[in-house]
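Think of the structure tokens as a kind of shorthand, similar to the way a musician reads notation: each symbol stands for something richer, in this case the local conformation of the backbone. In the example below we present two proteins back to back. Begin with the first one, reading the sequence and then the tokens, and try to describe in your own words what changes along the chain.
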Amino acid sequence: MAFVARCEKVAFYGVSGASGEMTYKRMKNFSSLSMSKNPSEYSRKYVDEAFEQTDVTGYSPSISYTFDLDSENDVHKDIVSITDGEKIGSDAIRTIIVVDMTSTGATDGKKVAYKRDFAVIPDSEGDGTDAYTYSGTFKTKGVSTKIEVTVAEDGQSITLA
């Protein structure tokens, strides 16, 4: 069995730079980053059968998050700006790319990843007595695209292929 550790599926968050270019930075210091697929189902029971049949008709993935606020972390700063600024609509849409660090892309040195836009849905802040925390959910805002990326040597950012 080839065991895959949780730390080998790494998420990167799109942060807009000063000149408007998109930089994908590692989502560090998150104590929770859990994906739910949230499938839509179509269930029915036919009169000539004793059981119900179910088909999956779609998905609406979401990622629950919690992080200990690091005032120097660009990803945290962006999520806090959405939360504290109560941003809505397109101002609260961000791209997240999940990279499988155990994968090998078609091109040498590349990793397989999945890119998707999410709406940042804040939930709570300040829970706990040790560190100031923020939590919420990233909810899908588009289709997932399989891509290849190059991970920086320090593992803190990626470049799209």
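Once you have a description of the first chain, move to the second and do the same.
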Amino acid sequence: TEPFTCPICFEDYSSVDLVTLAACETHIYCKTCMGQHLTSLITDAEVSRIGCPHPSCDADAQEIEVHELVSEEVYQKYLHFLVLA
């Protein structure tokens, strides 16, 4: 298959290194950039809008997607914020 260029980092990736959120299915990013995006939102306590990085997309990330893409420490912080919300 053709390599895909991540629209965030502009690096080329094969399909195994790519991710799209189940709720989105349109915007594709490398796992690293998606993980960094979610980590940044969680670190900034922006848990009400954890989702697709695309500016015009309001697709939310599912809990399992967050768990797969961020560190365990960040995931625990995410769960904490969910409880508070």
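Compare your description with these statements about the second chain. The chain has three helices and four strands.
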